[in-house]
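cron nightly-structures :: item 1 of 1
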Amino acid sequence: MDLAKFQRKNIVVLTGAGVSAESGVPTFRGEDGLWRNYRAEDLATPSAFARDPQLVWEWYQWRRELIAACKANPAHDFIARLERDHGGDFLLVTQNVDGLHRLAGSRKIVEVHGNIWDVRCASCGAGREDRTLPFPELPPKCDACGGLLRPGVVWFGESLPEEAMGMAFAAAESCDLMLVVGTSAVVYPVAYLPQLAKRAGAYVIEVNPDETPLTPLADESLRGKAGEVLGEIKL
């Protein structure tokens, strides 16, 4: 496949857990998400943090240690190269929190679920990137006000960041090509993005090992692992 016709056009890439899985990042959901007999859904909530912030941070520190050992894979590299070389407007919208897109060199990126390497104060709201591993004390404290820091991710029961989603929807409405990689296309509101792009006249390409609800809508559906399929696409 050749993307030459989209040179200097507007491109949006939407990625999900399938991209990170090829780097060995666990899903942290279902059976893979069990940790000390807790499920992800029991720990990644505001109420869990309010009840036992140390327990929540012990889980997130364990997750950070696992992710720190993972490397960007060919899918991440392809997407970073697409941003760098295609010559038009570009936006990467990712549902992943592992930071591997950043590691691969992606810069025009919206992380709609946040980033596990970011922290934010639960009291004053101050935030920053912090790759400290391990933290000398749990839960870590805010340098500005002494409040508790929390992971800079979106928890169950929280709304997706309004500014990030606004950027994602605006880009979807104006893109010429949307490349949807490694996402099940069932989690809303992010799953609206390909539908919105298609209605606005974009060419939609799906890359996924399995059929998804997006498949009937897509102009092309490429079956296989993201790294392998994207590696065969010419820019």
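cron nightly-structures :: done
The longest helix spans residues 53-68.
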